[in-house]
Amino acid sequence: MPEPLDGITVVEMTVAVQGPAAALYLRDMGAEVIKVEPPLGDPSRYGRGRQNETPAGTMGPQFVAVNRGKRSICVDLGTEQGRRVIHALLANADVFLTNYREPALLKMGLGYDTLREKYPRLIYASVNGFGPRGADADKAMLDGVASSRGGLVYHTGHDDRQASLPGAIIIDTAGAMQLALGVMTALFARERYGHGQRVQTSALGATLWLQQWELTHTAMTGANLVRDGSHHPNIRGFYGIYGTKDGGAIMLAQVMDQEGWDALCIFADALELSLDPRFQTPGQRLGEGISEEDSIEVRSILRNAFSKKTTDEWADFLYTQPEIIWERVRSWEDVLEDRQNHDNDYLTEVNVEGVGTTQTVGNLVSLSETPGSVKGDPPVLGEANDEVLAGLGFDQSEREAIESHATRTREEFLAILQAVADSVGADPE
């Protein structure tokens, strides 16, 4: 069965998550993705994170997550041979996708204006931290700084404590989703109008996209909404997270009908809420027409009720109530075991040297007639050099020279690391 992007070639020059995750979506949809890495590789190849006891040298989980199924070639774009390689790739590519900063791209001769002149049908897709224009267009970015600048951090956490980071790098990933959507739109436009174009988005833009309702509410009303801990800053009523007797938690969002509300009040031993005129409609229960004091009161009653039963007791009851919108608050370990994720093929397996078979997130978009698919494991650095470069017309001596230069550069860098480690008595791994 054909896949949507069969025949599309993507040349990827990226690091970390925001760029690689965008290319990963294109790969799942059938595009060939060639990841061009410098001699030392994408730095995320080596990032270990916390509580990581895998063998030294194992690919980092971040790299594994967003680079599966791609092909890696390793060349030094600071050399004449490296520049020949990248242009040989771009001459036959449909998409050039990067999250390198603009000054670095210009220095390598890979600015948009240069490539547009050479390759008029090329989609030039770039993503950065704070947008393509303005004083901070070239400012360095990691996920937390974009979510801080975009207002998300300020509104996350408890109002009597310092603001909190979200529990995942959602902005890098949201920026990747925006970039992938932009690439798909540009490819469709090329089919209609016959030419490539530049696609640009940013982590800051993605942060705003994720908060469209909240930002618009503030703009329209002038409201100074503050973070509200286990509850949403802009929703009154009981919508929020409640701790259970055994240390778990339940997210209770809404009760859609009176029967469900009565059942909840009975199970919670809070009959007074069942007949309370302040909470008789779904709108009221979601905060419409009630006061801040009403919200504090109903939350207090439910907080007390949830604390008297275990998570399983609450879940067993709530599963009998189809008009109650709720969910158990799950850890990442729970998510990896969740039957719903496996039934929908949201998780997939890859093989990682040093670990063996492990799980990661798979292709999340289902198409009935031209579905995408998971394409395989994350690539070893430079594993496709010989095959790809031969296909581009580089002879054996040229391929060996490129490989030798990359290997020598890595060895020199590791020697420097070892010397530094020896001076402080540490192992560079």
Number of helices: 18
Helix content: 40-55%
Low-pLDDT parts are: none
Determine the oligomeric state from the structure.
single chain
The CATH architecture of the largest domain can be given as 3-Layer(aba) Sandwich
The tally of structural domains comes to 2
Kindly report the CATH topology of the largest domain: Rossmann fold
Report the major sheet. 6 strands, parallel
Protein model, in words:
There is one protein chain. The mean pLDDT is 96. The longest helix has 29 residues, at 396-424. It contains 18 helices and eleven strands. The chain has helices at residues 18-28, 61-67, 80-90, 102-107, 112-118, 143-149, 170-193, 203-210, 212-221, 258-267, 271-274, 282-285, 292-306, 311-318, 332-337, 339-343, 385-391, 396-424, and strands spanning 9-13, 32-37, 71-74, 95-98, 123-128, 198-202, 240-243, 249-255, 324-328, 347-352, 356-361. The chain starts with 8 loop residues before the first strand and ends in a 5-residue tail after the last helix.
Task: Describe the SSE topology.
Layout (H helix, E strand, L loop, with lengths): L8 E5 L4 H11 L3 E6 L23 H7 L3 E4 L5 H11 L4 E4 L3 H6 L4 H7 L4 E6 L14 H7 L20 H24 L4 E5 H8 L1 H10 L18 E4 L5 E7 L2 H10 L3 H4 L7 H4 L6 H15 L4 H8 L5 E5 L3 H6 L1 H5 L3 E6 L3 E6 L23 H7 L4 H29 L5
Parallel strand pairs: 1-2, 1-4, 2-3, 4-5, 5-6
Antiparallel strand pairs: 7-8, 8-9, 10-11
Helix pairs in contact: 1-7, 7-8, 17-18
List keywords for this structure.
single chain, 429 residues, alpha/beta, Rossmann fold, 2 domains, 6-stranded parallel beta sheet, 3-stranded antiparallel beta sheet, elongated
